[in-house]
Write a structure and sequence with these properties.
The protein is mainly alpha-helical and 105 residues long. It contains seven helices and no strands. The protein has one domain.
């Protein structure tokens, strides 16, 4: 399946593409894909537990905490500063850093 097949299938709402993980079209390496998914999670205002799962996936794919924070900064021009501010504590917690505790000191 090449990119035109994927776009055509999405355009006609082809149900077999609903779970993008099962598509045999991955031009992105696992690390990049994990970081893209993290960016999407930030943009969508994902639930707190989702950040833990996505951060774990990114780490398992070879991404560093610094790269994940760079993703958060990188999406600011698209999602806006308030969205990034809202996502920061969720990502921090997923990375094992409690921003609330840090602010108390």
């Amino acid at each position: 399946m090449d990119y035109t097949d994927v776009l055509r299938s999405l355009a006609i709402n082809d149900a077999h593409l609903e779970d993008g993980c099962n598509v045999e079209f991955h031009a992105l390496d696992p690390k990049t894909l994990a970081l893209v998914r993290l960016a999407a999670l930030i943009a969508a205002g994902g639930a707190v537990p989702s950040y833990g799962a996505q951060a774990d996936d990114a780490v398992n794919a070879g991404a560093s905490a610094t790269e994940m924070v760079e993703v958060l900064l990188g999406v600011i021009p698209i999602v806006g500063f308030p969205c990034a501010v809202a996502a920061a504590p969720n990502l921090a917690m997923a990375l094992g850093y409690d921003t609330d505790e840090a602010l108390e000191h």
